[in-house]
Amino acid sequence: MTLKANSISVRIGQSLLLQDINLELKPGRFLGILGPNGAGKSTLLKILSGEMSPTHGSVELDQIPLKRFKEDALAKRRAVMPQASQLAFPFSARAVVAMGRWPYESLCTPFANQKAIEKAMALSDVRHLAERSYSVLSGGEKQRVQLARALAQTMGRAEDQEAKYLLLDEPTAGLDIAHQHAVLKAARQQCNKHNTATLAILHDLNQAALYCDDIAIISNGSLVNVGPTKVVMDTEILSKTFNCKVTKIHEPHSTLAIFTTSL
Ligand SMILES: Nc1ncnc2c1ncn2[C@@H]1O[C@H](COP(=O)(O)OP(=O)(O)OP(=O)(O)O)[C@@H](O)[C@H]1O
């Protein structure tokens, strides 16, 4: 059971957005995507979610070509949190979160759906916003409501009542530091408890090191490196990728290292 990108290339006009990307998203693993602005990270997420089709290569979802899935079948299998700024809904925050359960309405009892909605709202710290209109929420609040919607989609009582793939496009962007951690902790918890294959585009090296099992580094549309976090988060590779000096400070009495950056 994997979401697999096979030799993906994307060309739009004269621009090569992605070049020969091979990547696999596995159950119970949290994959972080790192890379500079404009590297192609969101494009890759759109390819994996089926929002965009590659120019070359293919995506397979549980061994079936992604392009064979109809939208409703796809919604049962994968949950996507796009960058929140792209979205506007004339509904309450609770109604937006409830959209995450739409694909399973005929498969679950209203009670089970309601439980998933409440749990996802609690994990994303948006219960106090439930009755407010989504359109008037702040950027960070909208972001957390979107996370709750995607999480609700992954929270069923049985395998066929939840999406097994969770794709998050910069879930921490615009959030205060406590909520950045809360959001990543919620995604991590979901990955552990429901075996959800999770992908998140991140910009913070320390958060990537703390929450992700695996890291893929994208630069100029190409996959620079992919593998276990400890192996891939090499200061030399990171310095070259981000064109700045990345150093690692080893904390005494701790297995954790802190990444610091300077130009
Ligand atoms: N529809 C499109 N037509 C033409 N170029 C595009 C299109 N979508 C994206 N691009 C270009 O492709 C490149 C990669 O964009 P993408 O959004 O995937 O980058 P990213 O790595 O997610 O960047 P960021 O960290 O800034 O969000 C950018 O140069 C962008 O301008």
Written description of the protein model:
The chain is α/β, with parallel strands linked by helices and 263 residues long. The chain has one domain: Rossmann fold, CATH 3.40.50.300. It is 33% helix and 27% strand. The protein has helices spanning 41-49, 71-77, 93-98, 110-123, 139-153, 177-194, 205-211, 229-232, 235-242; strands at residues 3-12, 15-25, 30-34, 56-61, 64-65, 78-81, 165-168, 197-201, 214-219, 222-228, 245-250, 257-262. The strands form 3 sheets. It has a 6-stranded mixed sheet with strand order 6-7-8-3-9-10, with helices on both faces. Helix 4 (110-123) packs across helix 5 (139-153). The longest helix is centred in the C-terminal third of the chain and has 18 residues, at 177-194. It is globular. The structure holds adenosine-5'-triphosphate. GO terms for molecular function: ATP binding. InterPro entries: AAA+_ATPase (IPR003593), ABC_transporter-like_ATP-bd (IPR003439), ABC_transporter-like_CS (IPR017871), P-loop_NTPase (IPR027417). This is Heme ABC transporter ATP-binding protein. Keywords: ATP-binding, Nucleotide-binding, Translocase, Transport. It comes from Kiloniella antarctica.
What labels describe this entry?
four-stranded antiparallel beta sheet; 9 helices; binds adenosine-5'-triphosphate; alpha/beta; Heme ABC transporter ATP-binding protein; 263 residues; ABC_transporter-like_CS; nucleotide-binding; six-stranded mixed beta sheet; Rossmann fold; ATP binding
